[in-house]
Amino acid sequence: MSKQVLLINITRMGDLVQMGTLLQRLQHEWPGAAIDLVVDQRFASVASLLPHLRHIVAYDFHRLVDESRVQSKDVVTLYREMTRWAAPLVEAQYDRAINLTFNRRSGLLTSYVGAREVRGIAAPKDGDVAIHNPWMAYLTDVHSQRQFNHFNLVDIYALGGSGPGPFAPMSLTLPSSATQWAREFFAPHGGEQIPWMAVQVGASDAMKAWRPELFGQTLADLSRRTQVGYVFIGTEEERKAIRIAQTTYRQAGGIAPLCDAVGRTTLPQVAAVLAQCRLLLTNDTGPMHLAVGVGTPVIDLSVGHVDFRETGPYGPGHWIVQPDTGCAPCGFDQVCFHHACNERLVPDQIAGLCLHVLTGDAFPQSLTGVKVYRSRVDEDGLGGVDLCAGREDPTVSWYGRFWRRFWFEQFTGISSQVPAGTELPPDWGDAMALLDHLAPLAATLVSKAEELVRLTKQRPVPVTALQQMQLREHMDRQKIVALSMQRPATASLAVSLVRDTHGDDGHDLTGMAQSRLATYRRWQRRLQSVATQFRSLRKPDLRVNHGVSRPLPMARSA
Fold first, then answer.
1. 3-state SS assignment for residue 258
2. Residue 88 preceded by cis peptide, ω within 30
3. Which CATH architecture has domain 176-412?
4. Running along the chain, 558 residues long, what does each successive block of 10 average in pLDDT?
5. For 31, 62, 303, 502, which has the most beta carbons within 10 A of its beta carbon?
6. What CATH superfamily is the domain 4-132?
């Protein structure tokens, strides 16, 4: 009998499309696996485009949240409705449930289904939220150390939900009716005689959107350089921004024909329209992932709090333009008062990049104020990018490569084929001083955790001694975390330590103490691995300033 897998993904359209690689990886792991997907009713039509699905189980979760919030139905009624709906999922007896929606409500559903194995967030009714699988746990760490994250969400889904395997591109299967609709849509405007370019001006969050008038100037400039036609896509909510772009385009002397599919398409029809285009110029949006899924090249304008390494276009042949500002990308919890990143993207330069992609014209040489990347498949068969224009911060660049290799090897047990590089990190001296300082602190922390385990096994339990030791262990951990966060050589380890500590579990006092001990030992091994790799680098010439070690500031105990 083939394996049965349940996927839970009920938040955004883009997240659904980004599951395509996971679906293929599951078939590589378990050939013939029967895969069912729980999805919000609003996105069921997108789910129908995904390969390798047996059943799409749709529910109006949006309504459920609203009814819970306004209390239009009592809790008992809502619970009964949900249990009736979920009963077939429980009866299926899934071999694996993969929850890609990171909230407690989806965790409750995951636990209720009762699969033999769970990956992602689970929330049993008698316990707290728990994250199963290290890749899924890593996903919760990304926002704390996002400048050093080199894993695309597509790969995190695939590695966490299944495991390593051959590169598998995102792919969508278009219904013939949608393809025919798209052909008929373009026919009155010149059809296949015109090289069409899709344009997505809007975004779900204004922080993620380039200014619409700059879109208009870009399109006008490009229209004077090559034969092209433009089709605008988006929702009615984005109509105002699209009109600004179109008005600016005409005022700037644009001469190419304009097509408007805004608010006139189903999601499968949007995908079919994109499949007819040579290029999509877009902000970071759900339609960007649709374009990737149908094989249309993308130019992603990565502004605001968008991190293209995490959610940018996946697989080879796409382009990303990121403003070259010290604050890019900004954090999700930040409020920006200047939006200076929008000013760094210059319309005639973006038009030059579009021309390069559309016609094979020379790559623009006069790009300023931006970093331009081209997406690719890396040596481990994961999504990656190459820097084609601009300059990266040396520290961010070095540690990004380092942590990419480190976490891949830690979580998979496979040696990474991504070149390690032999050059020193810019802060090598300070990093080594911190690693050397942390080593004995790690040993002490592990020793105290061992003592906690010993104390919990005594009968009667020495409550006072246990409380005192727990307090000392807590203070030591706080000190270690504060010290570790000072350097990129150890900050990622500190973030994972905090998260793992919160996830400690056990059925009794000794079980919880043993779980904490296992967490500390794992962190100590990782610390030792980082130190070993740093020592393997060539020793710096002290006559050259490679980063002279300075006295290490001591962190206060919390």
1. strand
2. no
3. 3-Layer(aba) Sandwich (3.40)
4. 94 92 97 97 95 95 70 72 93 98 90 96 82 94 88 98 96 96 95 94 79 97 97 94 97 96 94 98 95 98 89 97 71 53 81 97 90 97 96 94 97 95 91 98 98 96 96 97 97 95 86 96 98 83 41 36
5. 303
6. Glycogen Phosphorylase B; (3.40.50.2000)
